[in-house]
Write a structure and sequence with these properties.
Blueprint lengths: L2 H19 L5 E3 L5 E2 L10 E7 L4 H17 L4 E7 L6 H10 L6 E3 L2 H12 L8 E5 L5 E6 L4 H11 L2
Parallel strand pairs: 3-4, 4-5
Antiparallel strand pairs: 1-2, 1-5, 3-6, 6-7
Helix pairs in contact: 1-4
Length: 165
């Protein structure tokens, strides 16, 4: 690895760390092109399920429809889903194709792979493994669970039920 590449990687981790202390880094909203944080999607009294995905992830494609249905069932009451794609600006068109193909109604944000993975590692204390990955934030914004790999929505529903007052 060249010195300039390693310096840039270290800088990205430091930037992610500094933004995480004040909240999550900025991601681009795929619908509006506005820049937002995960914190912008926390809603009083609701769990926030963050699904980190990529347009070419087969497991993501298999699971995302169930998470769309989960979002539709829970969004008015106790939980909502937020998607974050690691496709980055260079693959934004492919990410939009994924959203359209799966008719996703929950908000999806676009992040650069380095930013998303650094943030995941920072807030979970775990090594980034890949997509899909899930973050579960309790009402109030506290991270309660993180999981790399596929997670059936029934597991998330049971987790919410057993961790809600």
């Amino acid at each position: 690895m060249s010195k300039s590449v390693s310096f840039v990687a270290a800088l990205l981790v430091l930037l992610a760390a500094s933004t995480a202390s004040a909240g999550s880094p900025l991601f681009q909203n795929l619908d509006s092109d506005a820049f937002e944080t995960i914190d912008n999607h926390s809603e009083q009294g609701k769990w926030l399920i963050v699904m980190i995905w990529a347009h070419d992830c087969e497991i993501c494609a298999r699971e995302v429809d169930d998470y769309q249905q989960f979002h539709s069932r829970h969004m008015m009451e106790d939980a909502r889903v937020l998607g974050i794609t690691i496709d980055g600006l260079s693959r934004k068109k492919a990410a939009l194709g994924f959203v359209n193909r799966h008719q996703l109604e929950f908000v999806n944000l676009l992040g650069e792979p380095e930013t998303v993975t650094a943030y995941y590692q920072l807030i979970t204390g775990s090594r980034w493994i890949g997509t899909p990955s899930f973050l579960i934030f309790a009402p109030g914004g506290e991270l309660k669970a993180a999981q790399a790999g596929g997670v059936p929505v029934e597991v998330v529903e049971n987790f919410i039920a057993s961790n809600s007052p």
